[in-house]
Amino acid sequence: MSSITRFFAVVVVVSSSALMIGGCDQSKAELDSTKQQLQTVTAERDGLKTQLDGANQQLTALKQQVADLQAKAAATAAAAAAPAAPPVEEKKDAKKGAHHAAKAEPAAPAAPAAAPGAVAPATGPATETRKGRGHF
Asked: What are the residues whose beta carbons fall under 8 Å from the beta carbon of 95, sequence distance 6 or more?
């Protein structure tokens, strides 16, 4: 080989060695940075998993409490509806005749217990139209 070719080969080898060493230093710094980010993200993920587990346990406990309260409310409503006493009939005036006694209105039945979560009917002015004398 000639001296120029040998010199050129040495320059190529030295410059490629310098690039490889310099490139490795950059890659090593980037690798260390990525490892640090991975550790940070992993620690954050573990913390979030712990919070999620705690929230799920709390949700389960709250669902159980809701079920217990609904059962108690249903039992209370059933107990309130069961021992309802029949309405006491009022004494009629002795002066009124049999004709008035026959027109006596029957006692109103007890209102059925509303189911839990049911919407109560709206109260307000009557919607039927009134006709006849005495209507204001």
From this structure: none
